[in-house]
Amino acid sequence: MTNNIGLEEILKGIGPLDGEWIEKAKERTAQLVMPARALGRLHEISERLCGIQKTLKPSINHKAILVMAGDHGVVDEGVSAYPQEVTGAMVQTFLRGGAGINAISRHVGAEVWVVDMGIIPELKSDELDERNRLLIRKLARGTSSLAKGPATTRKAAEEAIITGFQLATDLFRKGVEILGTGDMGIGNTTPSAAIGAVITGTGLDKMVGRGTGVDDEGLEKKKEAIQQGIEINQPNSKDGLDVLSKVGGFEIGGIAGCILAGAYHSRPVVIDGFISTAGALVAHALCPAVTDYIFAGHCSEEPGHRAMLEHLVLEPILDLGMRLGEGTGGALAMTIMEAAVWVFNNVLTFEEAGVADKD
Amino acid sequence: MTNNIGLEEILKGIGPLDGEWIEKAKERTAQLVMPARALGRLHEISERLCGIQKTLKPSINHKAILVMAGDHGVVDEGVSAYPQEVTGAMVQTFLRGGAGINAISRHVGAEVWVVDMGIIPELKSDELDERNRLLIRKLARGTSSLAKGPATTRKAAEEAIITGFQLATDLFRKGVEILGTGDMGIGNTTPSAAIGAVITGTGLDKMVGRGTGVDDEGLEKKKEAIQQGIEINQPNSKDGLDVLSKVGGFEIGGIAGCILAGAYHSRPVVIDGFISTAGALVAHALCPAVTDYIFAGHCSEEPGHRAMLEHLVLEPILDLGMRLGEGTGGALAMTIMEAAVWVFNNVLTFEEAGVADKD
């Protein structure tokens, strides 16, 4: 049972992917009636899914996205182009089915669950059921400004991770075969860039971008806020929980928890862009083996994203100049991953097709 | 009517895309409840579809792939890793639904039609109907070796184009909203590289790759055959029909015809990889305006593909190291394009969502 599991126990329960099923899957790929590995990355995707699911009949039919929402005290420093009220308004838009993540998820056949991890407004919810997909797990009404001190406590950061872990675990128990992580939080490219800078060691000029679209002045304020936050808080790059609590956010912790859950239960998790990957950096700092279970949905237009993915040694599936967040890039990549599964499961072998192989 | 249309008349009937609908579409994109153009290339895709379909309610629900098959006399020069019999055997695999293109097309919801444009074996068929999707339009039992003289006659090359045009026209009349081009033909990276080298002016070292997987010796033979073919035939790079007849193939001509049909009827056509793009180069040499109606599905692993796409000023949607052909890259890109349409048609505006915009 994982109902009262602690972080230590979660981390102990995660191991690297067993290579044996991947090897078996590669043998099947080699028999498919096409030149050797002619579908490139589609083969890598299907084979890694075989490894994660320990099967030669991979399935990602049952898909879900967990959109983690949180507010950020650092917005007071003038780091965002949008007012903070937009976080709550967008959460309501998700629940109405009217946002980008809803459209893409309907297309790819994924459920969307929205989680209040720590937004300012008090929205109503029910428990995990089919009618009301807002889950209230509010840790606080937004973080404190990371530019002036720790964004939150170590205890709350840990709770955010455990919360994400539990939510993802619940979905896996309901039969979800692949989970996408998403985010909503005005200002959250600021904590994400701070996490990226601290954990990857990349300079702020390369790591900090315009997010939803700040102007030159806003971009300078954003860099200053992050610089100040790192100096004041001195986050320890080797301690994911320390980084998360000092310069992170509740939704980022929730995403890290989802990723740990994927690795713990051996289920694939697709991360989205800049914010989700900041969550992956936290999870990876806690437990490097998590990357075996992560698929990078896309490369964001946000300039620091590439450096984050390189730190994790993850190659993005899509590169379409997207920078919306909400989980959109991960959801979209799921349809490519599903194509990979279709190929793996349904293409005939040379022998079945009666076609002469190269040899 | 287009039942007895000639090439001259087709070319006269093609004009550049009307920019007015694209501008209207951009206005709608600007109202969607997300930061400005935050879904990057998805917006460009949906807006161009609006331009092509002259609507603000684009639809690519009804999808079809035309897989054009042909054999190539140049295989006698030792340019391919597979025996020529594989062309016909793969056509039969398509009809059994067991190849890569079948798996991906089922996933994205596209019909697959297979056309014998000039393969060596005599396979059976019916007319265009739902049960038997092999269409026999055989122009010859394979081309002659381009290394020794013209691959075919100017008349047969023109017939190949008209045939592709008519087949695509039939599908558009049946309600197909987006057409993908595919190919099958052992040896057909050789004529495609020859077309690419002649039309784009790229050197053979950059244009010629390993296709289905020839070894170093095969690669040298391939370059020599192409070099010899260009020297003997002296194709005129400004005359698409001359290039197609001297160093091309029947399936490549059929693909060029599909592309002309898309432009003529103002319907979107998604090209696949190296061979389909050679067809696009021929169509573009005949009528430069065709590129307005073409979407480049992916960038192939075949090294010369990038230079072809640059010549056409087309940016590929996917880049997944694929090099199978059959139409797989174009079919896979259709699901991304459909996501773009979902976003365009279904995301609420700032006003509808009651969310404050940046301004």
Q: Unreliable segments of chain A (pLDDT under 50, ≥5 consecutive)?
A: none
Helical proportion of chain A? 40-55%
Q: How many strands appear in the DSSP assignment of chain A?
A: 6
User: Main sheet of chain A: which strands, in order across?
Assistant: 3-2-1-4-5-6
- Arithmetic mean pLDDT of chain A: 95
**Greatest interface by residues involved:** A-B, 58 and 58 residues
Number of domains of chain A: 2
Task: Just give the CATH class of the largest domain in chain A.
Answer: Alpha Beta
> What's the architecture of the largest domain in chain A, going by CATH?
3-Layer(aba) Sandwich
Number of helical runs of chain A? 15
* Rg over CA atoms of chain A: 20 Å
CATH topology of the largest domain in chain A: Rossmann fold
Give structural notes.
The structure is a homodimer of 359-residue chains. The first copy, chain A, has 359 residues and is of the alpha/beta class. Chain A is 49% helix and 9% strand. Chain A is built from 15 helices and 6 strands. In chain A, helix 12 links the parallel strand 5 and strand 6. In chain A, helix 2 crosses helix 3 and helix 7 packs across helix 9. The interface between A and B is large, with 58 and 58 residues.
SSE arrangement:
The structure is a homodimer of 359-residue chains.
Chain A: H1 7-12, H2 19-31, H3 41-53, E1 63-70, H4 85-96, H5 100-108, E2 110-118, E3 134-136, H6 154-173, E4 178-184, H7 189-200, H8 204-207, H9 216-233, H10 240-247, H11 250-265, E5 269-271, H12 274-286, E6 294-296, H13 305-312, H14 328-346, H15 350-353
Parallel strand pairs in A: 1-2, 1-4, 2-3, 4-5, 5-6
